[in-house]
Amino acid sequence: xxxxxxxxxxxxxxxxxxxxxxxxxxxxxxxxxxxxxxxxxxxxxxxxxxxxxxxxxxxxxxxxxxxxxxxxxxxxxxxxxxxxxxxxxxxxxxxxxxxxxxxxxxxxxxxxxxxxxxxxxxxxxxxxxxxxxxxxxxxxxxxxxxxxxxxxxxxxxxxxxxxxxxxxxxxxxxxxxxxxxxxxxxxxxxxxxxxxxxxxxxxxxxxxxxxxxxxxxxxxxxxxxxxxxxxxxxxxxxxxxxxxxxxxxxxxxxxxxxxxxxxxxxxxxxxxxxxxxxxxxxxxxxxxxxxxxxxxxxxxxxxxxxxxxxxxxxxxxxxxxxxxxxxxxxxxxxxxxxxxxxxxxxxxxxxxxxxxxxxxxxxxxxxxxxxxxxxxxxxxxxxxxxxxx
Length: 389
Ligand code: CMC
Prior knowledge:
GO molecular function, one term: citrate synthase activity
Strand content: under 5%
Protein name: Citrate synthase
Pathway: Carbohydrate metabolism; tricarboxylic acid cycle; isocitrate from oxaloacetate: step 1/2
Distance between the termini: 16 Å
Active site: 278, 335
Shape: globular
Helix content: 40-55%
Order of helices and strands: EEEHHHHHHHHHHHHHHHH
Bound molecules: carboxymethyl coenzyme *A
């Protein structure tokens, strides 16, 4: 009771009007600006999809080329940010470093506190989008103490990110044998590009809501994006992709699956099956479906880890046929399937959530822009039901 609607976790509160992303949780449908994600992932580049989210339409071939060039051009980081990396210890989680570096961008680009200028507004968005994979790759290299690699403007966004993770300083290393060189295959670029597209927006999820909330106070846009990174890191949200992989490794063998399913069902055990369940999808997650198809397609080509795949498959089968999961509408979500593919791309586990950040950045930027352009927008300021004395 009380004067206000009590809605913990905002399960039934619409916080805004939006034209960006549509989800039908009953029918497993997800659309960006009217386009079904199955018609976008793997069919349009991640940068074109980013343009679509931010500008409302897919770019013409010329606009696409210009956007791509502009993103390459803006990919460099001020050297001051590199000194910030140096202040952080070995073993720092790349998400912590990314949050700090994105926040620090506000110190380098002060002008964006005043964004009446349409061009400044668009440049601000392109700048963050361009720098995010660079920040992520440098955060990783810094965490393991390898020399930082600068972005290569001759490479497309997604290829450049793989390059920055893998490259040996001072040139190419070709002859170390399988898995020990920095060669980047087109199939790897395409797979990662599709994964980024599937993460690009998801309407008012926790991190996007955070970006909008911080944006609603008129805070600097880069600070709003940094707060999105913080919200995404949690294991109930983007951090789940890292935890899924930890969990598959913990299960270790198909024969142990029933034990962990039982733990997940035990109401006295806090253990949850990571990569299962979703606030909006009480039916299949269309992003997971698309990723599963991609996984099947790439099984041979990318030499996916068959042991991990077998465990994942057994977990999925056990959960899907179990009443506990059925009654609650718990299906595998996007985070359940991304890990096996990312592992085949030789991406370290601690980079899974940073990849979610790179993918979600255009969504955050589109949502932040929509908020700013919405004449009805107000500072986010919910009320409470006071239960003290
Ligand atoms: N394993 C076991 N039980 C679960 C799970 C799970 N993964 N997820 C939900 N439940 C149970 C939960 O205990 C509750 O049972 P009961 O009604 O008996 O109390 C019921 O299902 C409803 O769960 P909830 O926590 O009230 O649902 P929610 O909408 O608040 O939470 C969720 C959604 C995604 C946080 C949750 O399903 C979860 O923690 N999943 C595991 C983490 C995960 O995979 N997160 C990634 C989400 S997709 C990527 C993204 O968009 O970030």
